[in-house]
What does this fold into?
Amino acid sequence: MRILLGAILFLAACSQTTTGDDATSATGDQADALDVHFGADVPTTADATADALTDAVADAAPDALADVTDAVTDVLTDSVADAAGDAAPDAIAPDVSQADVQPDAAPDATPDAVPDATDDATSDVALDAADDVTSDVPVVTTMTGCSDGSREGFGNQQNFPTIAACGGAWDQPGIFNMPAKCNRQGGNDGVNAAGTGCTVTDLCATGWHVCYGKDDVVFRNPNGCAGVMTGATPPVFFTTQMSSSGSFNCASGAAATNDLFGCGNLGCDFTGNTTCKALCSPLTLSSHDLCKGLRNDLSCGDWCNHLGKYPGAPNSWDCGTDGDKEALNVVKTHPEQQGGVLCCLD
It folds into this structure.
């Protein structure tokens, strides 16, 4: 724009030089006189000056106009380009890009719709399955605690919901952590009442175990052995998995395999010895050596309530021939007599 204004001012100044025109007119008159005199066109200083100015203007005018035109064109072009450049990034590219539309729509719909439905369905199925398994456990079996569905001690299930005395037989020796081997069909009223192929655990219902010992018993029944004779037919002895290191010193561990300890009214009551009572409480009865406190043929002392005091009663308990390992060797016959095991709810 500055170039355009300069050219206009230059042309205006040239056209308004009044003194120059007057001088040119005077000089022209003199030239005409000379031309007449010589009979030819004689060059003069005025002519030279006029020709020079004419040539300068002629030379300068196109360049000036061209410069002005170029300047205007450049300004207009730059303005349009700048305006378009400024508008294009904001108005076109970011807002209508397919790259922005597609990624936002697809990922949001897929994760929310599919996983939520799958997770909810899976959780519901798992919870329903767990509920079904729990509800399918027979209530009678769970409450009874004995695999054959009947108790032979702690007979009042409402008073003793987590401990039961179960009568029966087994021929697989031992009391420690024995797995069920005859499908829990043992028990005095069981399908396999003779206990063929059964362990002590086969006398307990599913969800129950042979009570581990004194702590397990008192946890299930704060009064310990009290109440065990409810529903029982004496004489009976119900063993736990507790044994001793000898001399009625209740203990646990690899060396504790001497004798059996439990509840009932058959066997040897050791609670007169304060040391033994403290070690074994709340359990009150022991089998004594080779289970002689539970038998009628091994000359047990009168301080024990042994089977010899019940004329005609056959021996049911057999603890083997090792006086230090009765807990590893015990088996029992005559399922309907002389007790069996204490079962505690898992």
Summary: Residues 142-345 form one domain. Residues 45-91 form the longest helix (47 residues).
